[in-house]
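Now for our target.
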Amino acid sequence: MLCGLCGRKMQSHQAHETAYYRCRYPNEYALANHVQHPRNVYVAEQDIVPALDNWLLKAFAPHRLTETIRRLHAAQPNAGPGTVAPEIIAANKIIAACDTKLLQYRAVADAVLDPAVMPAVDAPDPGGIAFAELEIQGLCCRDGRIRTDRI
């Protein structure tokens, strides 16, 4: 939640077993930035929750759901082509580990097994590479953002 006076992010705060949001703005900052701002601004959470609940009910109403999902998707930061999501990095590590195991299995098979048995060894690990590749394809769009059908 942002302070309406200075635009800074408000902090959560508890006092007398009640949740508040507060903005602490030292006098020196207010004077330097020419902002009329009390030292502390408090907003009780109980005063915000009903309005927030109503807003969420409207935003996620069945007839507005598609538009809300589109807006959530558009609001994501654009990761850009050079940025890779942590989930994609993890999936790529799984693929690399499976590729390494597969190469090791093939080396053992070349040294020990009869060539008639080899086709069975060439099959990739269905629980490793295939799952990781599906995770990469299913999670993100080309720009690195989460797809709308995954929000």
About this structure: The beta strands are 11-15, 18-24, 40-44. The radius of gyration is 27 Å. Helices lie at 27-33, 45-59, 65-75, 86-112, 118-121, 129-139. The longest helix spans residues 86-112.
